[in-house]
Amino acid sequence: MNFIFYCDYPPAGHDYYDARKPVVGWVSSDVRIDRMELAADGVVDRRVRLVPRTDVEKANRKRFRHHTGFESSVTVAEWLKGRDSLAVLLRLFSGEKAVGDIPLTLVSALARKQRKRDRLGPVLACPQCHAALVRLSDAFRCEPCGQTYSTTGNSVDFLTEEFKKTFSIAPTENVSAWGYDPKILDIIRRNPEGLFLDCGAGFRNQHYDNVINYEIVDYPSTDVLGVGERLPFADDSLDGVFSVAVLEHVKSPKDCAAEIERVLKPGGVLFCAAAFLQPVHAYPHHYFNMTSLGLESLFPNLEIKEREVPLSLHPMKAVTWLLQGYANGLSEPLKSRFLKMPVSELLALGGPERWHELPLVRDLAREKWFELANGTTILAVKK
To answer: Which residues contact 42 (CB under 8 A, 6 or more apart)?
Structure first.
């Protein structure tokens, strides 16, 4: 039998994902598939559900006649049972005849993540008084403060109700996910015995034994929950800190920067990136943008070794982000007209003295005024 196969879930190359979901994929073949079985470690799932996949049929109908999607009745977590990986066999049947076997490997970082937690004990500290913590069976306790911090099934939780209120931490459905800069990867790989903090990690696809994923959201990849302004780590305890696209989202970037300086070991390295010419993008809040000098000024006790604008933050990103956002704030036919304007015509629109005459300016959706503004003002009264 000739066929092609793809596993949609769990996603290839991802160490972290929702293991409560089933194994999902598809097969395109030159014979009809009537039934499938998944087998691993002596367990056979004979209730694999076959589902139509019109998207697969559309893509592959020139090469194959039959296209079958599938979904296991057993979740990825039930297959893995806490293991790092597991070899699984997908058996294909046409009628009652087995016509093909497809090996696939389920990989998860969850077991490695639990082992990483064992490394955290010596560097964790009370985020309020910085005292060492006593480890309990399901929590860490600060004796001077009397505060107990629980260890959930996924992360160590230092995100107290008081911190949520003080630092305006709100629930969010937004998922922040991005790949590491090559410089960060180099730092991680050059010191495998070191311990690094990804301060505001977002959702991470890849697992690193020596990187603590710190977040306000309990993603599958999150190791420790807490706020940047009160880091739950001991003084001079970490070999490095990564803070990428985070400082613009914290209520007090100065306090967050001071905490980063506090937890870094002498000689420890910081890689930090922050927004400058970027529209409002809230995860769940966006407070500050800053120049390169502004970013440096947050770390008065660190020696700045390098200043750079990586390609991912090139001025062209600012230009295109602003223009796309502006276009999305216009209704038709103004949007189409705006998208067809030469740059020269755009630059010739003039200044504020005549903008009230221009529909392209006047009729921009009001929420876009704040998202893309060149500046904002407030009028306030002292209480």
So the answer is: none
Residue 45: other Cβ atoms inside 10 A: 19
What CATH number is given to the structural domain containing 15? 2.60.40
Mean pLDDT for the stretch of residues 218-230: 95
Q: Does residue 323 sit in the same domain as residue 193?
A: no
Give the pairing of strands 3-9 and 97-107: unpaired
Q: Of 127, 16, 25, whose CA–CA distance to 80 is shortest?
A: 16
User: Residue 330's pLDDT is what?
Assistant: 95
Domain count, the chain: 3
Please, which pLDDT band fits residue 159 given cuts at 50, 70 and 90? very high
Examine the domain organization and report whether 150 and 200 are in the same domain.
yes
Query: What is residue 114's predicted lDDT score, i.e. its pLDDT?
Result: 86
Q: Apex CA 172: angle with CA 283 and CA 252, to 5°?
A: 45
Of 93, 108, 123, which residue sits at a domain end? 108
pLDDT, one tens digit per residue, over 180-223 is 999 999 999 999 999 999 999 999 999 999 999 999 999 999 99
Q: Is the pLDDT of residue 284 over 90?
A: no
d(CA 244, CA 214): 12
For 168: left if phi > 0, alpha if psi spans -120 to 50, otherwise beta; the answer is: left
DSSP 122-182: TTBB-TTT--B-EE-SSEEEETTTTEEEEB-SS-EE---HHHHHHTT----------PPPH
Q: Are residues 48 and 186 in the same domain?
A: no
pTM for this prediction: 0.86
**Structural domain boundaries enclosing 67:** 3-108
Residues 65 and 185 grouped into a single domain = no
Indicate if 62 and 179 belong to the same structural domain. no
